[in-house]
Amino acid sequence: MIQDVLFYLFAFMTLLSAVLVVANPVSRNPVTSAMFLVLTILFMAGLFVQLHAFFLAAVQILVYAGAVIVLFLFVIMLLDLKEEQSRRIGKLGSVLGLVSVGVVFVLFNRALSGLPAKVPGATGQPSLEGLTAPLGHALFKQYLLPFEILSVLLLVAMVGVILLSKKDLR
What is the pLDDT of residue 119? Predict the structure, then answer.
């Protein structure tokens, strides 16, 4: 019972803070959005703890909330962005952004619809706790391509932060 309440609480707070990263009604300052991203990461770590994935929760907090957010904030602070100097996104950029989100959504649906409903050979309850060595082996052997795609995604996010916070020189 308490696990269900905590799951729904963490899931709702994760979704709410993720929406506030993008559609921030409090401030147009990118630092505020980065702080909401930290909250999103912390609530996701809470979901990992609920799954008894303590190592993943610790990595989530240390790597993402620690290193990546500090790097984002470092870039934002280096560019010395002020609230009134942020660049407006045009109609073309909005349309292209929505089209790209739609394409990614369609690709995810196609990839997930091809997965079997039940994994062959799986019996009973899955083991929720494990060692880090098999996790690292699976990450760098079986899931190397998604791991590299995630690293490129983080690079694109960094370039996006730089471009969005760049001052117009007109």
Answer: 58
For tokens 């963490």, the residue is 10
The whole-number pLDDT of residue 14 equals: 94
Q: 55 near 132, Cβ under 8 Å?
A: yes
If DSSP codes are grouped into helix, strand and coil, which group holds residue 131? coil
The structural domain count of the chain equals 1
158 inside domain: yes
Report how far apart, in Å, the C-alpha atoms of 124 and of each of 1, 38, 110 are. Answer: 22, 36, 28
CATH number for position 159: 1.20.120.1200
Q: Which residue has the tokens 């799954």?
A: 51
DSSP string, 66-121: IIIHHHHHHHHHHTT--GGGPPPP-HHHHHHHHHHHHHHHHHHHHHHHTS-SS-TT
The separation between the first and the last C-alpha atoms of the chain, rounded to the nearest angstrom, is: 58
CA-based nearest residue to 33, from 41, 44, 42, 22? 22
pLDDT for 84 equals 46
**pTM recorded for the entire structure:** 0.56
Q: Alpha-carbon distance 96 to 51, whole Å?
A: 37
Q: Tell the residue number behind the tokens 């020189």, with chain if given.
A: 169
Amino acid 71: pLDDT:
74
